[in-house]
Design goal:
alpha/beta, 16% strand, 4-stranded antiparallel β-sheet, 14 helices
Length: 304
């Protein structure tokens, strides 16, 4: 059986995420303690108890999703001894994929996420912006929708007919008006703290570059499809540069999944909170077999 492992990004979080793993064994609990020490706040308390409004803040959301996803993947590998032929992660999830592939250590991943999440939040204050989901538009229509005065770009190329745009408030609002005028019936403004994966994240790049370049990366143990290129790589230098470029570049998720599919993958396993990626997979690959692993019970029920 050929398996691929996938990791979610922001938007998948929920209050209580990861608690069942922390209660399940001391190893999982210890991961939260290590992360909390590096971050300088009690990650387990925010993950398990909220409040939801605090958990939605980028600087808390990113490490919370990462630790939950990482633990889920480790427990799955331990219980079922699965070897993955490829992996990918959506935005933040790419760091989780690289950690599970042992390109970076858990501790170093938390250090990167601490800088990444805080610098992205700061960029959202320096260059305010927003994001919106567009459903049912063609590639040509997306170009027309983004042809506005000001900055607005495709940010998440999630699946056929499902795109997220990102940019300045006025430009995004104009883009949504254009979408409605050309017959796009479903557009959803997103409740986010910044224009992620757009040029408005440029101020975060310097800080992220500094921390990424200070950390020792290794070649990945299995290929990772990175968001920026939608191509497989195990090369540590390529991984580092793409991880930095990801801040201002679109997440090419649709292409990434199709690239993994070319390897003959038979089962896609999403590790972490929610089932967003499994849902996208069903749009990208109609007959794909998908599993979502977010609790010890789901690991027990997994059929390898």
């Amino acid at each position: 059986m050929k398996y691929s492992i996938l990791f979610p990004g922001q938007g998948s979080q929920y209050v209580g995420m990861g608690k069942e793993f922390s209660d399940y064994n001391s190893s999982s609990k210890n991961k939260y303690e290590i992360a909390s020490e590096i971050l300088g706040f009690n990650l387990s308390d925010i993950s398990f108890n909220g409040p939801e409004e605090q958990l939605k803040n980028t600087q808390f959301t990113q490490p919370a999703i990462f630790v939950h996803s990482y633990i889920a993947a480790l427990e799955l590998k331990y219980k079922h001894n699965i070897k993955f032929i490829a992996g990918a992660g959506h935005s933040l999830g790419e760091i989780t994929a690289l950690t599970v592939a042992n390109s970076i250590s858990f501790e170093d991943a938390v250090k990167i996420i601490k800088v990444r999440s805080n610098s992205m939040a700061d960029a959202g204050s320096i260059n305010p912006g927003t994001m919106a989901a567009i459903f049912g538009a063609t590639d040509i229509q997306i170009k027309e929708i983004c042809a506005q005065e000001g900055i607005v770009v495709p940010a998440n190329l999630n699946a056929p007919g499902q795109i997220v745009i990102s940019g300045e408030f006025d430009a995004v609002n104009s883009a949504l008006n254009t979408a409605k005028l050309i017959g796009i019936r479903r557009v959803i403004p997103l409740n986010v703290s910044g224009a992620f994966h757009s040029p408005l994240m440029s101020s975060a790049r310097k800080k992220l570059s500094k921390v990424v370049n200070s950390i020792s990366f290794k070649n990945a143990e299995f290929p990772i499809v990175q968001n920026v290129t939608a191509e497989l790589t195990v090369d540590k230098e390529e991984i580092k540069q793409n991880l930095i470029s990801q801040l201002e570049s679109p997440v090419r998720w649709n292409e990434s999944i199709n690239r993994i599919n070319e390897l003959g993958v038979e089962q896609y396993v999403e590790c972490g909170p929610g089932k967003v990626l499994s849902g996208l997979n069903r749009r990208i690959l109609k007959n794909s077999v998908n599993f979502s692993i977010g609790t010890p019970k789901e690991i027990d029920e997994f059929k390898s």
